[in-house]
Write a structure and sequence with these properties.
The complex is a heterodimer of chains A (116) and B (109). With 116 residues, chain A is mainly beta. Chain A has strands at residues 4-7, 10-13, 19-25, 32-38, 44-51, 57-58, 67-73, 76-81, 90-96, 106-107, 111-115. In chain B, the strands form two sheets. In chain B, strands 2, 4, 5, 9, 10 and 11 form a six-stranded mixed beta sheet that branches. A five-stranded antiparallel beta sheet of chain B has the order 1-3-8-7-6, with no helix packed on it. The chains are: A mainly beta (116), B mainly beta (109).
Chain lengths: 116, 109
């Protein structure tokens, strides 16, 4: 199989603090992982592509200093929302693709971030 | 950029068939997918189809692809209340991955 674990499932934080979200590929190595953001009742918006051992590639309009991505190993990518504000409240989902797997990308279960 | 379109809502009665439609613009799509998202959860891959296929059946799910019209559909036979969710159509050319807006399926008793 190809399992992606995302942690935490939900988090509440105060404005101005930083929050780290982890995305792990449990049974395969992922040189590339993807971070999405989903607003209520909307589709997924690709935020950035996380590359193991190199800098992430951010989509247009996504602040790289706001959303720090680190992909230090072949099984772990982290997204840190820095100096969080209420407008950062959202559902964040990561995904990864197992090499040679035609069934596409496996998604984590998502993290619901609420900034108060 | 590439675009994937879906109707936003669908309501069916329990036991009926559901058909969720999707259109896409990328003529170089290699894979087309259907994902299911239940409330507060991540995306679950339901099924996928290669662009050189016309149809794929997997238990209650039937995927039809009209490559000429760039039209993809997902049919759920004998729809159950547990099928209530948002269904996302997605396409990939092997490099990029584009989601549709999602169709919210409501199953009425």
């Amino acid at each position: 199989g190809a399992v992606v674990s995302q942690h935490p499932s939900w988090v509440i934080c105060k404005s101005g603090t930083s929050v780290k979200i982890e995305c792990r590929s449990l049974d395969f190595q992922a040189t590339t992982m993807f971070w999405y953001r989903q607003f209520p009742k909307q589709s997924l918006m690709l935020m950035a592509t996380s590359n193991e051992g190199s800098k992430a590639t951010y989509e247009q309009g996504v602040e790289k200093d706001k959303f720090l991505i680190n992909h230090a190993s072949l099984t772990l990518s982290t997204l840190t929302v820095t100096s969080a504000h209420p407008e950062d409240s959202s559902f964040y989902i990561c995904s990864a693709r197992k090499q040679g797997a035609p069934m596409g990308y496996t998604f984590g279960s998502g993290t619901r971030l609420t900034v108060v | 950029g590439e675009d994937v379109e879906q109707s936003l809502f669908l309501s069916v009665r329990e036991g009926d068939s559901s058909v969720i439609n999707c259109t896409y613009t990328d003529s170089s799509s290699t894979y087309l997918y259907w994902y299911k998202q239940e409330p507060g959860a991540g995306l679950q891959l339901l099924t996928y189809i290669f662009s050189n296929m016309d149809m794929k059946q997997d238990q209650r799910l039937t995927v039809l692809l009209n490559k000429k019209d760039k039209h993809l559909s997902l049919r759920i036979a004998d729809t159950q209340t547990g099928d209530s969710a948002i269904y996302f159509c997605a396409e990939s050319d092997g490099q990029n991955f584009v989601f549709g807006p999602g169709t919210r399926l409501s199953v009425l008793p």
